[in-house]
Amino acid sequence: MARPNVLLFMADQFRGDCLGVDGHPDVKTPFLDTLALRGARFARAYSATPSCIPARAGLMTGMCPRHHGRVGYQDGVPWRYENTLAGCFTRAGYQTKCVGKMHVHPLRNRLGFEDVELHDGFLHYYRRPGTPACESQLRADDYFYEMQGLGHKDVTDTGIDCNGSVARPWPYAEETHPTRWVGDRAVDFLRRRDRDHPFFLMASFVRPHPPFDAPQCFFDMYRGMDLRRPPIGDWAQKTASRAQGSPNGIADPELLREAQIGYYACITQIDHQIGRVMEQLLLEGELANTYVLFLADHGELLGDHNLYRKSLPYEGSARVPLLIAGPGVAPGTVSQAPVELMDVMPTLLDGCGIEIPASVDGKSLLPLARGEDAPWREWLHGEHAWEGYSVQYVVTGRDKYVWFSRDGREQYFDLAADPQETHDRIADPACRERIDQLRRALIADLVGREEGYTDGERLIPGQPGRAVLTSAAL
């Protein structure tokens, strides 16, 4: 039998609960729901470092944050990893291509892909005065360059911010939208590929990362709906506030509703483009021999606990969708095991019979996807640094412990009983033993870290954090 192909769909800022098959009452994702039923769904998939750059480092290297070194968001740090997901497939004789978002440095770093048709969204770092001409985003980004040739203005000329919560329909022709562009380029690759070689194709969508600007027809799907209100925990600030690195949140309930509509509209547009690409895969006769995987780099708080955007360890930000279908995967499998983006690289290499590099920390998900009673990790450690401090979390298949390094504040959530984290049980005497167990797990994982978060016996608040570790093999 021919070696399996790989089709990796990735979205940016797509919440783990925003799938119909996950039980969301509002958002419409028929094609992704079908993919989940054809394969396996990981209901406890997380982003260890929930913002774009560090999350993608985990995906592309198979390393945990401690080893890939990006424990917060920082632009302009070169990517120089010896082993990458795409590089392993290229060396194994696969035809490899990415269409859409990479978010690496330098901007045109292919990270092991044979070819990249790039669209990273609006990146402030590559538009500042003094940016070298070769790194200017309007020149180096294929989508922006193509749209300029068609006479279209820049994406933010519509008046909505690339990191804000304001929503409005795309004012131009639908076929010029970035989500449609990624779908078009992915379909074109399947049409023009070299059929003498297996392929690894990554279709990487910028949305539903803001701006929330799907075409009008997708907005219309949600206009008349009574949308579910975001959960507000008994521990949350009572007014809308900023998450790490984000602008002010939305206090006006009507503007919140518009943000929800725009966000869900972007998700449904992505779902329809995934349906297009899957149809082309079926027409090519390659569906049965292709691993198809869908995931996101992180989520979007979207008003949960009066917070917006990402970076924080709460479910809306840190939990991501992760679906996989393909050879040997048991249809309809749902796993509650705690899994992470670093597990994707060993999973795909394992499925295609390619040696997994020793540098990889993740584990293959295929035994779980086959429905096997395989041993698995008990917990995951995640983190995100910002403004000299960080937040650390430990999550299992049933609960979560959070520690803020700035002031030592702790939180504990029983996810099995309270999946929306509405009640912080850190002061509950009945949870004391479990909290101590998870705290010790965090201490063990932080021992030896250059920030000095622990002496091996206790967590030490107030230590200066950093977004990039100097000791990592970047």
Corresponding CATH architecture = 3-Layer(aba) Sandwich
What is the radius of gyration?
21 Å
Q: Average pLDDT value?
A: 94
Report the biggest beta sheet as strand number plus sense, adding barrel if it closes. Answer: 8 strands, mixed
N-to-C SSE string, H for helix and E for strand: EHEEHHHEEHHHEHHEHEEEHHEEEEH
In DSSP terms (H or I, runs of 4 or more residues), the helix count works out at 13
CATH topology heading: Alkaline Phosphatase, subunit A
In what range is the share of β-strand residues? 15-25%
User: Which term fits the overall shape?
Assistant: globular
Low-pLDDT segments: 242-248
Helix share bin: 25-40%
Q: How many domain units?
A: 1
Biggest sheet: strand arrangement? 5-4-6-1-7-8-2-9
The total count of strands amounts to: 14
